[in-house]
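Structure tokens please, single chain.
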Amino acid sequence: MSQLSRRSVLAGSLLAAVGAATAACGKSSTESATTSAAPATQKFDLPAEFIPEGIAYGPGNKLYAGAYNGQICRVDIDTGTAEVITQGWGYESTGMKVDDAGRLFVCGGTGGDARVLDTRTSQVLAHYTFAEPKATLINDVVLAQDAVWFTDSRQPLLHRVPLSGSSLPGQEAVTTLTITGDFVADGVQSANGLCMSPDGRSVLVAKTGAKQLYRVDTTTGNSVVVDLGGLRVPSVDGLLLEGSALYVALAQQNRVAVYQVAQDGSSASHVRTIRDGSFDGPTTIAADQNRLYLANSRTYPDALENPKAGTSSWISAVPKS
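Here you go.
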């Protein structure tokens, strides 16, 4: 789940979610020198006025994208067909993930909540409330072995919905974990992108304004800065972990940084940077076996929720290597 992956109640806060503005061309002094450049294998056009924020890969070779205006779109990778499957619920549809049962977990942004959709029927299976609307920003989501975790971009909190078997729990099962230690919420755009550590015992949280990643113990809430060898992650947004490979969307840099992460998530070394001419504000990342899929928000600071008629956007598909 990202110009940033992602977000804000108003254009200003959405811009903050998009991350602090940095030059989109030229080499950042915060990155290592090794880069790779490969042409996009494909671009998937989204419906007009659909500005994506979150993205997820699901069964049947389908992509799901959530928009700043709350809509959710399904894209058939085989045919390129894109269709809006819901108009949303009055707030942004930000970070999202699909589980093995074909359930789509969707962050509700400034709605302060999350919903679970059946990807086959588009019906809402569950609704979880974490805060009053506009009181915070539920930004990104990750699936753990026994729970689903959500980042809160206005408060130093992680929200947890337990998972057991095939049924979804009710609202009473929701718990909240306070983040302590190195991570300090700034009240504007704090916790953003989210993924598990390779050993599954902690979560890695992106903090956009600080240009850093944090390892958060999911039992105690204690956080420490991930050692990136002195590097920073400018305009960091969405995170995607596959094995020990961590893909980091650098939204306003129009790049994806790739790191090799220690099993406990305490450190990571920069391996390469993926650049592509199709990137235009990539906020969040999904993947299949061979490709990465990036939602391009196109950094519309004044029109993310209400884009002008005819505004176009797309999903970039690039090889992992």
